[in-house]
Amino acid sequence: VELMAETYMFESLMVEFGNMYGNMTKQALSHTDQAWNAFEFKWHEFFSQYHGVWATSLITLAIHEIAYFGCYLPFFIADFIPFFHKWKIQPEKSNQFFLQWRCVKQLFVNHFLIQLPIMLVSHPTMEAIGMTWETPLPTWRTLAWQVVLFFFIEDFYFYWIHRLLHYGAFYKFIHKKHHDHAAPFGIAAEYAHPVETFFLGLGSILGPFLFGRHLLSLWVWLLFRMFQTIECHSGYDFPWSLSRLLPIWGGADFHDYHHMAFVGNYASTFRIWDWVFGTDKKYRQWKASSAPTSKFVPELTGVYAKKSQ
């Protein structure tokens, strides 16, 4: 009888806990939906007054710049704090000021003379395919699956274009510029030849153009894309890096090898396509070996890279 009473009491407590947790979850979702509705109202109010090609293009550029340099700031600060240097992938390489200043100058050329015109030209295309800024906005749940889908689309596109850029004249006259940094730092992500900026940039808008159809989808995706590209060029592999939590995520460790060895690991975000097509073979061999990071490993072409200076 006592055992039955204790069992009944335990079951009652579990039911009560379940009900309490369910109510808390519903309240949290309710508050989230209320906040989203308020945001939607403000969105409609703003775009009722300000819309058109210049408004959308300039806001898109502003989001890009704030996200790009904002995501780099923590890694920039880490360079000045010795505690974080133990997680630097190539600790013998320092991010010298002249390299970063050269990078910034090229970035302003690419951002304002290449990307901004693309944004302006893209506006009529966005309208033609039915992309809109109007309410109702896509829900946060819709935005979540869209961002995931956009990552996979961009990653597949990037893999093949990037791999092509490592062949012959494409590398010599276009992609080699990006490889000025054998030990990359965050903002080196978009340090590239204008032709490369154009063609790889198309991959970033492909997902929103095909499956987003709303300006908010593009902007939310842009925030996540900026974090991804800055992080994988950061030169730091922290214990809390996403690649340690999500096995298919490439991250800095995966992409840093590409800058060290100049080949392999062509995908932008995930490890999937390099594994499928065997272009991560040398990387996996390097990881399994005891070779220090300051020595380059054999290139996939069979040519041996030199020891880093």
Describe this protein's structure.
- There is one protein chain.
- Mean pLDDT is 85; it is low at 292-309.
- The protein is globular.
- The protein has helices spanning 2-49, 53-78, 97-128, 140-164, 168-173, 194-212, 215-232, 242-245, 251-261, 272-276, 281-288.
- The chain is mostly helical.
- The chain is built from eleven helices and no strands.
Brief summary of the model shown:
By secondary structure, the protein is an all-alpha fold. 65% of the residues lie in helices and 0% in strands.
H/E topology pattern: HHHHHHHHHHH
The overall strand count is 0
The termini sit apart by 79 Å
**What is the typical, i.e. mean, pLDDT?**
85
Runs with pLDDT <50, length 5+?
292-309
The coarse silhouette is globular
| Beta fraction | under 5%
| Secondary structure tally, helices | 11
Q: What Rg do the Cα atoms give?
A: 23 Å
Q: Topology of this structure?
A:
Elements: H1 2-49, H2 53-78, H3 97-128, H4 140-164, H5 168-173, H6 194-212, H7 215-232, H8 242-245, H9 251-261, H10 272-276, H11 281-288
Main attributes?
309 residues, mainly alpha, globular, disordered C terminus
